[in-house]
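Async update (no meeting this week)

Hi team, since we skipped the sync, here's where things stand on the single-chain job. The sequence we agreed to prioritize is pasted below, unchanged from the tracker. I ran it this morning and attached the output directly underneath so nobody has to dig for it. Comments welcome in thread, and please keep replies under the output.
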Amino acid sequence: MKTRPRIAILCQGLLALIGCTLVHVAVAAGVQRLFVLDCGESKVPDVSPWSPGVNTGQPAVFSNNCYLIRHGKDWMLWDSGFPDAIAALPDGVAGPRNMRGYRRQTLVSQMAAIGVTPQQVTYLAFSHEHGDHVGNANLFTLATLYIQQAEYDAAFGPNPERFGFNPANYGKLRASKIVKLKGDYDIFGDGSVKILSTPGHTPGHQSLLVRLPKTGAVVLSGDAAHFWDNFNNRRVPSFNFDADQSRQSMDKLDAIVKSEGAQLWINHDVKQNATILHAPKYYE
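Output:
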């Protein structure tokens, strides 16, 4: 009669051990790959609006990337760059502050080269809703959109143009599943991909922390700073939504980078971009 309780206890112990092992494996899986996609380039004749008081009258080139993340069987896209349609325009398209935007290859073709279609992307987020970041947003209506409440209110509210937003770039997402955030958010619940609230450039600007098993932590800063000199000097573009918030967000990213021992990838810094692997190569 004493044997049965002992067997039951032993079975319960084994089940608990197996359960813990399965949980450990699920969490350890995390992010398998991070692809960096070429999502265009911007040329400006005078970079000083981006760095007030510095480089007056100096031309500049801004890189522009999108990031495709493989987590288990799921795909997440961070930013979508300039519209694919401008890849057919050798002279690019005009933008604000005398900017011209260009694409050498489409987002869709780069995704196809690694075997992914827009329909396979189920998690979608943008650093913010400016046209060089949401140009292909309407291709991803099947995905769940993760956006800060403040950014949603600005982008889908009555006066999006006040913030430099054009609903034609992302308007189809209005009918998608949307998760409205009010701060940092752990996308997969395992700490491997975390949205960081970094307002200032726009009302609900956000950045992304990605923890990779081999590469380590990487922070994708969006437009929290446009290039390293601005970040190091906490320099804020004249057209940002809120200068104080912009500096606070740079301070926050700096603290996270130091605590995580992370790499900070500044999206528009063309010199840093030249050192980063692009698809079909990847980080893991």
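Quick observations from my side:
The CA atoms of residues 41 and 63 lie 5 Å apart.
Residues 1-28 have pLDDT under 50 and may be disordered.
Reply here if anything looks off.
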